[in-house]
UniProtKB/TrEMBL annotation:
This is Efflux RND transporter periplasmic adaptor subunit. SUPFAM superfamilies: HlyD-like secretion proteins. Residues 297-324 form a coiled coil. It comes from Comamonas nitrativorans. Keywords: Coiled coil. The keyword Ribonucleoprotein does not apply.
Amino acid sequence: MSHASPSAASLVAQLEARARAANTPAELAFSVANDTLPLLGFRQALVFAGSGKQARLQTISGLALPAEDSPYLIWLRRCWPWMQQQVGEAGGWLPAPTAGGSAPAEADGPQMAPPPAEVLDGWAEWWPQGLYAVPLRRRDGVVLAWVAFLLEKPPTVLQQQALAHLAVQWGYCWEMLGGKPRVGMRQRWQALGRKRHVLWLVLALLLVMPVRQSALAPAEIVALDATTVASPLDGVVKAFHVRPNQAVQAGDLLFSLDDTTLRNRLEVATQSVAVADAEWMAASQKAFDNFQSKGELALLQGRAQEKRAELAAVQAQLARIDVRAPHDGIAVFGAVDDWLGRPVVTGERIVQMANPASAGVLIYLPVADALVLEENAPVKLFLTVRPLSPLLAHIAETSYQASLSPDNVASYRLRATLDAPANRDDARIGLRGTAKISGGWVPLAYYLLRRPLATLRAWSGW
């Protein structure tokens, strides 16, 4: 800086002080783009963070925040990599390009390759006669940013020396404010050297390492030994005499059906039997002296027997409106309010009598997660109430055909039996959770790529 005038040296010192006072790279870029106007008298200054195609416009002189969607900035992002290539790694003066690709005669800049048409159109519309670019480098020489000044003529030698001096200071401040540089994955991989071969070998061994296939599916504790208690006749549920999941003994009253209709039918049938008996008795008395009454006697007797049969049928139905437990167990059904007043038909399941000593696991395995299961495949059941204490079980039965699960997902129904008696003490009928089903042994690569390959095959039809 010995060749600079006192005013220029003072200005350079001020620019250095402002650079050191910046707290972030954004503040430093703002100072570089705006505070250098007295030194160069440029039309516009641009600061790019990064280099090449990864360069990102950081600051434009005179603007607090550039609008990313403006036509000017869109053109600038597209054309800056070409301009940076023309000035080279050291930076310098780049005159306005011409259609022939050479610099103007009065310019001492380098000869350029034919520029793209969009560079010519945008430059003619927005930029002056030339561009002076300065790279900001880290101490190891890596370019951190670029500063571009739009000028009507090339800067003088003194201005170029001042910019070269400031570029060193700006690069150092940018490096300090930016913190430790991030090393990309590609650079880290190349830095490993020969260790990369060892990593490839380890990765190959991991991919062929055998692992056990597994799938997660919703599950529920159910009774493997359960008796269905169905409605004995058509009717309406009148009352429940037990609560859901209540322990009952054989003969205990479970529920009752409404008897209003049957009571009315019983009254009508009783009266019909009385009338039929009266007609038969009257015909029997007339049969001694009336031949016609004697002929009707068999018909009236058959009608009386028919009415008695109807009365017996109604009485039998009335005896079945109170349904009792067939054996000891737990009454499993939904809420009582869901059944009261609900019409039922003969054979419709209302209650299940479950044996608490025969608790098992009902699993709904989605078709998309289906595995090739071996006999007695192991299962781990993680109950919602005890997620850290899995219950051990093994598959005892699988469905041949898929059906809709309670969640309306096409699934296979699997039944599993609990292994240890201690597990059965913790498994209360009705508890839900997630079952982990283990299949056969396969390489890790197949385990990781099975679902993507199945999806790709379904999509491509291979």
